[in-house]
Specification:
two-stranded antiparallel sheet; alpha/beta; Rossmann fold; eight-stranded mixed sheet
Length: 272
Amino acid sequence: MNNNILELYHNDNQVMNEAVDRIVIGIYGMQRQYGAKSFLFTGASSNVGTTSIALNISIALAEAGWKTLFVDCDFRKGKEYKRISAEAGRDLASFLSNNETKAVDIVSQTTYPNLYYVSSGERFNTPVRLLCTEKMERVCNTFKNKYDFVIYDTPSINIVSDAKVLIPSVDRYVLVTGLNITTKKQVMDAKIALLDFEDKNGGIIASRMDMSQYKKNIKNYDYFDESNLKKKSKEAAVTNKKPAAKKFKLSSLSGKKIKINKKNQKGKAVEK
């Protein structure tokens, strides 16, 4: 393991954390039911936040106590466009392109105790030639045996074929879409491209949802939000301060008791 430590910050957005936890529950369920440990994330189009989603899920799994590895498999972007990087020669591209780098040397630590990551390295113009190798298959198996969860981040399936090369080496893939960004045709094209791996389908994520859309889809999404709980507490305090209603019997001026019909609230006089 190399000495490069990636500093990650905790996300304090309650709504975002709840959305991530919903995905984590699904991933955890697939791990328990099917033994799935390695998950590949790919977009149905560009700019849908695949990397952010995969990284936040990795953080959530690590915070839950699972030993988690995040693997950046996007070789098409340079370091200047990435949040995650590593020392020269200690990355996935270096490991796959030469025999001097060992698998243990490309794994870096993060500021989260149970979260580790592998950087893709320098930009590589023909990444399929790196991924479509026996060496990549072996390192995928090594990661799977060593970690509780392995999360792979790959470019959009509709733009390049990198994800399609890696899916045979993972347990499940997850397709990421963006509301008002990904078209219906792009979703269908992605599903067709992944048709041969339907048995590894881990679901679809809809990202880039604004708050008004989130409210429509998730009722009472802010019920446990701190500000909402304070409001509920104040309402309860006011209710408890109200004086109890006095119990009394109604009687007519003629001295006859009156029975109240609860259905129509009409009084019916009866003789004493």
